[in-house]
Amino acid sequence: MATEDNGALTAFPRGRLLDAGVLLAIAVASFAALQSPIREYVFEQHFTNEYVQVLPRTLWAALTVWTFWGAAALVLMTLALRVAPGLGLLDGAITGLVGVWLFAYLGANLLGPIGLFRSWTIWALLAAGLVWLRRVGLPPLRARPTTGQWLALLAFGLLFPGMLLMQLGSPLPPYMDILATPASAQRILTFGWYLPFDNDPYGYWDAASQCPGTELLYALLGLGSGAKLATLAETAAMVPMTALFILGMYRLGRTIGGDVMGGLASLLLFATIFFRVMPYMHGREVTFVLVGVGLAFVLDEHRLALRIAIGALALGTAVAGHAIIGMFGMVTAALAMLLWFFAGDIVGMLLGAVLLFGASLVAAPTIAVGLRLPLPYPVLPLAQWLGVAIAVLAARGLDGRPMHDFIVGRVLRWALALVAIYLLWNHPAKLGVLNDQFTRFPLLSVGSIAGFAAMLWYDLRRPSRVQLGPVVAAFLFGVGLDYVSREWWTTFTVPTVQTAVEDFYHKVDYWNPYVMVLPTACFFTWVYRTVSPRLAVYALIALVFFPWKDGSAHPDPNYHQHSIAEAYAYSLQISKNGYWGATGHRRWGQSEAELEIADILRDEIAAGRVTLATHIVHITPHVILYMDNVLFSVYTGVNDDGYVERYEFDRSIAGGRLHPIAELPKALAQRPPYIVVHESTANAEKLSESQRLSPEVLQDYDELLNRDGVRLLRLKSMAPAVVQAAD
After folding, report:
1. 592-726 under CATH 3.30.310, yes or no
2. What is the spatial distance between Cα 118 and Cα 108, in angstroms, rounded to a whole number?
């Protein structure tokens, strides 16, 4: 399939008037079919004044972040095309965009611990790159889009308006449990240092739950764009991140089954929940960008050294972006290379193993943080750059090597495909993920049955063979890991290990739909080629656009497939009303007084009284993530040590810095330099009188703020001269 459709324009752009008319008719019918309550999100609710208030800051953040990311990507793309002209414009562009992400991770681990991961360093490097670019000139940027690329552009065009409105109305990511990420990025922006083992100011969860590969990208975007708040840099990346996600899926689909399959796979992303959860910008979502690009480049049949090396580095960085999702990508690549062995490509398999070993070394800092191995500088960056060298050498060994296909490999992947079809068809209750997802993702579940059959049919043909092996291996790996996770997690006794093992099946809930996009796209590709191109495209758009569910059934869109029309409704709901409704501000998630705490702390930082080592004791009545909490760590990067009155232990916070308030006297005995007291919240939570600070404690502190239920206290003995001497 990969050799027969590149550059072949059939449905697009010919007949554009007909295509536009059909698309418009589907859209009108879909929005007209919306029922309450989500119909009101589109047609009756209005944008609040808060949207207009935040728009100047979010719009400026978008312009600066997009400009910086685009300029840096252009430099890296040009460099990549000069090193490897055979890479092609599309892969060069992907290399440039992803290359900025790779630099954020590799560069921060090299420069951050010595205080050089700062704005002036980034701007100096970018300026040097732009001067070099002016000297060498731009590569030819004109290229005729292929059919699949038109389809991918259509997917982005359908998504763009709603995503842009949500981005511009969200100075804080719109989800409850993802604020550790901007807090970690803010710590770098505030203090100018990145310390891998001391970059968790949020403190709610165990330090191993960090996503440094994601956090460092947002920090880089903040440094490069001049943003003062990491939350603005992060949310400003919503649209480009989603575009790159679509591009990565197109590229992976093209690697697996050709250009048209890649384009149809891009449209089928609407049958997942990714466009709902991608704006949260957490590692568990955005890491799929790196996984898609990494697998697409590493598994491409046209083996080119630079492409393979970038793919390996993307997979290694994916582990840092989110350890579990990145691990899924690495395991899929390893299983695909194991299939190379059965296909007779033994040397290729060995070189692939070396390649992934290099990628694993790139992920070394994340592994060390997760295992709590505080290795001294520069051990971690040396390990990373050794990994880069190993990956490059292995990629050069794979350069130009043809892929073999012996009968043993064919029989093995056919057998695995039949097992996948059987499991999908029966979706036994024992395999919870299949049984559950059959009702939540009906299009992908049914489509995968037909899709694996279509992949088998194509696999028997020459030269139209698809890469069946990696897809079926990735799918069965997800099914097997889900079973192990659900059955075995309770056998572990350590809470943090229990949480990690149980979390596998929660992440398989993302992984399997992502993988099932590919066989489903293969089925629609079969319809495209054997029946009618337009019928395949129109049918697919209708299936993902029209709200087919019972109008009274609107299950949680974070977990259930929903139509494009419904997705617009949900996006408009957040855009118009904001997400943080149970807080002091629906957009910022903080009241004016809570934001003033961050302002005061920034002044304290400027005066030298708050440093990287500072921990603030934070007394609060209760912690419910989607309700009113003082988020000074998110807006300043200063360490937050919470002492909670109605503390409820949960495995997810084991190893974090949330403590029951019974431990507060011990903390106060250490005379902490700052105390934040959350006496009453916007959602009617109150600190008991018995838990409020005694006069004996208060006499040792100056009150910097006491307003609207929040107080900020500073130890009286804190003085700039004393602190500077101590530093």
Report:
1. no
2. 9
